[in-house]
Automatic annotation (TrEMBL):
Residues 347-357 have a biased composition (Pro residues). The lineage of its organism: Bacteria, Bacillati, Actinomycetota, Actinomycetes, Propionibacteriales. It comes from the Bacteria. GO terms for molecular function: calcium ion binding. One of its GO terms (biological process) is carbohydrate metabolic process. InterPro entries: Cadherin-like_sf, FA58C, Galactose-bd-like_sf, Ig-like_fold. One of its GO terms (cellular component) is membrane. This is F5/8 type C domain-containing protein. Residues 1-24, 338-390 are annotated as: Disordered. Residues 1-11 have a biased composition (Polar residues).
Length: 521
């Protein structure tokens, strides 16, 4: 491999970037890799792992959240892109990223009392579910085949493969290394087992190990409806199985789809009381928010959060318009009712002073308090990154995320939701819906381990909460890093398995589900 320079860019302005030499082994084999995307006025550079574009501000350069800072457009000089970069010129080819609509055929999947890990999991929009080829009672050896179908014929230019997620010892099992991709518009070919009928692969690639989403472009766009993924080898050569979390495709063509906007509930508040109302929306491209009828408050054009303090009583009819990068719009309406602030009447006589009890009353609580205690301190500045610690809407790897942050004791807690296909249990059964699903909570590194003392979220162990739910926490592991903890709760997880003749077969099982991460200062 010839040596060429590559850029290492920080994610915070003020820190210095570096240019180093690529190598096939050693420390520099982990240098940052960059995608080149055609934009108006030139090209943007997007980090292949963080999915964040490069932004230049004066003499400073950093990776930044595109919802907060506009990506800088660069121009290549000299002999062109191929001579100026240490990676192939990979162009992001579409703003329309979608999951196929069906699994047409799969050569192997695990489905018994030991584990249910069906191929349909790669289409459910949830990276925490996965397909696993048969491992019990016996293993099915490579190659493994998965055939998926789009809703109709379409021109595609890339695919994205999300490896199985999680922190268990088996989470890395069966990660795909070498694969071929075939395409056809003939359903008979797609449903059959004759590989020769598919012709030559439209793509052959080798993936790196790890849990990051792998975006793989085609050499040229193709028109197809059915795709055959052939997993030929695993990252660990001795493993005879394949796992995969999500499978999505990039479709070319004009984006005519409107953003999906979640209904906002009516708001009631008092004069002089601050409000914060998030407007949640999903689309395959960055969104802009605007609102009319607001009562002396404003909307953040980038995040969609309405905030401010009303100064006068009244009822306001609010309409929010959400616009995507192609100008497609969607609206949602709700009311904000502001009531006069009540004036307290003076009491006739002073209230009596309370008499202290001679001894404590009641039994001590069995579990630590929800929030750590300690003397208030000034919150330190901490690095933030999308989507987990920057408030607002984020579009990353074709998925829409929404994060809100709030004060928590002497730190800050951020909640992240993701737009996904979810199964909901109702009074009459189960339903499959598109909506926001909880992803995780992140406690920022503003408090020391000592300040968290006594809180079960910050020490290794298991416990049962007051509501009867079982919890477990692990700290200082490979999954958490050397200065943090992750907590999981035992929950009932619902799944929808498509039937051959239409409809779904629903299942439910109890399993550990990732809930939050605590980072220490």
């Amino acid at each position: 491999m010839s040596s060429r320079p590559t850029l290492n860019s920080p994610q915070k302005f003020g820190e210095k970037p570096s240019v180093e030499t690529c190598a096939s082994s050693g420390a520099s084999s982990n240098l940052q890799k960059w995608w080149v995307k055609k934009v108006d006025g030139g090209y943007s550079l997007i980090n292949a792992i963080t999915q964040l574009p490069l932004v230049v501000d004066g003499s400073a350069v950093a990776q930044q959240d595109p919802n907060h800072n506009t990506a800088t457009a660069f121009k290549f000089i000299g002999d062109g892109v191929s001579a100026s970069t240490s990676i192939p010129a990979v162009f992001s080819c579409s703003t329309t990223v979608t999951s196929p609509k069906e699994v047409v055929r799969v050569s192997s999947e695990q489905n018994d009392s030991n584990e249910v890990a069906l191929a349909t999991n790669v289409l459910d929009g949830n990276p925490n579910t996965f397909w696993h080829t048969q491992w019990s009672p016996s293993e099915t050896k490579h190659p493994h085949q998965l055939v998926v179908g789009l809703a109709q014929e379409a021109e595609i230019c890339a695919i994205s493969l999300t490896p199985r997620q999680g922190v268990s010892s088996g989470a890395a099992n069966g990660q795909i290394k070498d694969f071929d991709l075939y395409a056809t518009t003939d359903r008979t070919v797609a449903a059959g087992t004759n590989l020769a009928a598919w012709g030559e692969p439209v793509l052959s690639a080798t993936l790196p190990a790890g849990q990051s989403v792998q975006w793989v472009p085609l050499k040229a766009p193709i028109t197809t409806q059915y795709l055959l993924l052939v997993s030929k080898t695993a990252q660990v050569a001795t493993q005879n199985y394949t796992t995969l979390g999500e499978f999505s495709v990039d479709m070319t063509g004009e984006d005519t789809l409107r953003p999906v906007v979640e209904k906002v509930a009516d708001v009631t508040t008092d004069v002089g009381t601050a409000i914060s109302v998030p407007v949640k929306a999903a689309d395959a491209s960055p969104l802009a928010f605007a609102a009319s009828g607001l009562p002396a408050v404003s909307i953040d054009e980038a995040t969609g959060v309405i905030s401010g303090t009303p100064t006068a009583a009244g009822v306001s009819s609010v309409e929010v318009t959400v616009t995507d990068a192609k100008g497609n719009q969607a609206t949602t309406s709700f009311t904000i009712t502001v009531t006069p602030k009540a004036s307290p009447s003076p009491s006739v006589s002073p209230s009596p002073q309370p008499t202290p009890t001679k001894s404590p009353t009641g039994k001590p609580t069995k579990f630590p308090t929800a929030k750590p205690t300690g003397k208030p301190t000034v919150k330190p500045e901490v690095p933030r990154s999308a989507p987990y610690t920057i408030p607002g809407s984020h579009m990353i790897n074709g998925r829409t995320w929404f994060t809100t942050c709030e004060a928590y004791s002497q730190t800050e807690r951020c909640r992240t939701d993701i737009w996904a296909t979810v199964v909901v249990k109702t009074a009459t059964g189960f339903e499959v819906r598109q909506g926001w699903a909880f992803n995780n909570l992140t406690y920022l590194p503003m408090m020391t381990r000592a300040q968290w003392a006594g809180n079960p979220l910050a020490r290794t162990g298991t416990w049962t909460a007051a509501d009867g739910r079982d919890w477990r926490t692990e700290c200082d592991t490979a999954a958490t890093g050397g200065n943090g903890c992750r907590s999981y709760t035992k929950a009932t997880v619902y799944a929808a398995l498509p039937k051959a003749g239409g409809g779904y077969r629903f299942t439910q099982q109890s399993q550990w589900v990732f809930n939050n991460i605590v980072q220490f200062r």
